[in-house]
Design a protein that fits this description.
Helix 1 crosses helix 7. The longest helix has 21 residues. Helix 5 links the parallel strand 5 and strand 6. The strands form five sheets. Strands 12-13-14-11-10-16-17 form a seven-stranded mixed sheet, with helices on both faces. A six-stranded mixed sheet has the order 7-6-5-8-9-19, with helices on both faces. Strands 3-4-20 form a three-stranded antiparallel sheet. The mean pLDDT is 98. The relative contact order is 0.14. It has two domains: 251 residues, Aldehyde Dehydrogenase, Chain A, domain 1; 180 residues, Aldehyde Dehydrogenase, Chain A, domain 2 (3-Layer(aba) Sandwich). The chain is an alpha/beta fold and 458 residues long. The structure holds nicotinamide-adenine-dinucleotide (NAD). The site of nicotinamide-adenine-dinucleotide has 29 residues, from helix 7 and helix 8.
Length: 458
């Protein structure tokens, strides 16, 4: 079956059309990857590191072209897309370095002459299933550590990000042995076929699919990590500067049309919400909405027509349920899948908008009386990816942060933004399995073998 990926800002722009990888082709690709992976695992760490450096150089050399393709295919505003490509280069360089780290530990053995060691070994073929919203960074933050630690990779990208994935593989391919990194275009069927064949699975996407993938992996008894949705809260304390915080929250909620797992969906305001809410509406209305290829654009289109409908329907449902639409709520004119950045208040914390991820440029302001209520509301959802706290009082920030059920805590910083040097992941329905990125990635892409060596003659 042919798969088409179209530009969200100009849906008549067909970015790529390719055949989906059918089950037989997927199985054959994974077998080729496995053979390439065995040779790769036997290569020296220096060789693997050098290959990743060459891959980073290849991406850096084509950075503008990859950025433009990402802008065109997924509608990411140019400035953010360029930063993401740069991040991809950084990720490859970082894991090139990690390939040279010690690959195990030494423990006290049964006698002074004996050795008791633990060493890391690759798992085989890492199957990566990725979403469309970070078409460069997410495939690379999975592939780079997988390759650095001696695995082969098969990547099943989101259909909406097929062109970027194929281009990445073309660029990185010459730096790597043949068949070591393969892209398998397709949707759920291709993904399911890949899950049946690989040796571990790293997934990023929605909660519903992530849970299915986790069940499939568990049935096969292979390691799985899944990074899923978020419904991230920014808690604003009364001592925070409402104007400054509103600017930060507006960007975190609406940048890239809110299509980040780390976007702010809920602003929880302690005390009088009016100064912050007014400043937020002004800041949101000041954001540049438009063609993502323009350097000034902050809010481009959402990815598809159904995605746009979901945002408009969420706004309508909020209004019908007693919420106030403070700004936005309507689809944009013109051909692309634009929707006006939308802010709602007047809803309770149990309203659907305050409970479920919409994945678009829509946020809700929730007023609370005190910090205890802020924590209850922030934690009262099934997600637990990022929480942020805005205050000048470090004691209160630390006290609040310690009570949030999220994998990432950010003080006076937007919920959005990921540092690839540090572990990344959430709690509750936002994540399943071990953390990604930073030094944590090695735990997933390797298993540990314990080795005992005794002197031949006691
Ligand atoms: P999605 O769940 O629809 O798709 C993710 C991937 O899974 C795609 O490649 C898709 O083709 C594939 N897939 C779908 N059904 C499958 C199946 N049955 N078996 C195997 N693979 C299958 O998500 P999306 O719309 O591409 O991305 C948006 C979601 O991703 C949001 O929920 C967002 O919060 C989440 N996300 C999370 C993170 C994170 O790190 N926590 C980062 C980015 C995006």
């Amino acid at each position: 079956m042919a798969l088409q990926s179209r530009s969200p800002q100009r849906p008549d722009d067909l970015v790529v059309e390719v055949e989906e990888a059918a089950a037989g082709a997927v199985a054959a690709a994974v077998e080729r990857a496995r053979a390439a992976g065995r040779r790769w695992a036997a290569a020296s760490a220096l060789e693997r590191s050098a290959a990743l450096v060459a891959a980073a150089d290849a991406l850096a050399g084509a950075a503008d072209e990859v950025t433009d393709l990402a802008v065109r295919e997924v509608g990411k505003p140019l400035t953010e897309a360029a930063a993401e490509t740069g991040r991809g280069v950084g990720i490859l360089r970082y894991y090139a370095q990690q390939a040279l780290d010690p690959d195990g530990e030494i423990y006290p053995g049964p006698s002074p002459a004996a050795l008791l060691l633990s060493r890391r070994r690759p798992r085989g073929v890492a199957g990566l299933v990725t979403p469309w919203n970070f078409p460069v960074a997410i495939p690379l933050w999975k592939a780079a550590p997988a390759l650095a630690f001696g695995n082969a990779v098969t990547l099943k990208p989101s259909p909406e990000a097929t062109a970027v994935a194929l281009r990445l593989a073309e660029l990185l391919g010459p730096a790597l042995p043949e068949d070591l990194l393969q892209v398998l275009p397709g949707g759920a069927e291709t993904g399911t076929a890949m899950l049946e064949a690989v040796d571990c699975i790293s997934f990023t996407g929605s909660v519903a699919v992530g849970h299915q993938v986790a069940v499939a992996a568990t049935e096969r008894g292979i390691p799985i990590q899944a990074e899923m949705g978020g419904l991230n809260a920014a808690i604003v304390l009364p001592d925070a500067d409402p104007e400054r915080v509103a600017g930060v929250v507006a960007g975190a909620a609406m940048g890239y049309a809110g299509q980040k797992c780390t976007a702010t969906s809920r602003a929880i305001v302690v005390g009088d919400p009016r100064p912050f809410t007014e400043a937020l509406v002004a800041a949101v209305e000041g954001l540049a909405v438009g063609d993502p290829a323009e350097e000034a654009t902050v809010v481009g289109p959402v990815i598809t027509e159904p995605a746009r409908r979901r945002v408009v329907e969420a706004a309508e449902e909020a209004a019908a349920g007693g919420g106030r639409l403070l700004t936005g709520g309507a689809a944009g004119d013109g051909a692309g899948w634009f929707v006006a950045p939308t802010v709602v208040d007047g809803l309770g914390p149990d309203a659907r908008l305050a409970q479920e991820e919409v994945f678009g440029p829509i946020a809700v302001v929730l007023a609370v009386a005190d910090e205890d209520e802020a924590v209850r509301v922030a934690n009262g959802v099934r997600y637990g990816l990022v929480g942020s706290v805005f205050t000048r009082d470090l004691d209160r920030a630390l006290g609040l942060a310690a009570r949030l059920d999220t994998g990432l805590i950010r003080v006076n910083a937007p919920t959005s933004g990921v540092d690839y040097l540090a572990p990344f992941g959430g709690e509750k329905d936002s994540s399943f399995g071990p953390r990604e990125q930073g030094k944590a990635a090695r735990d997933f892409y390797t298993s540990t073998r314990t080795i005992t060596i005794l002197p031949a003659e006691a």
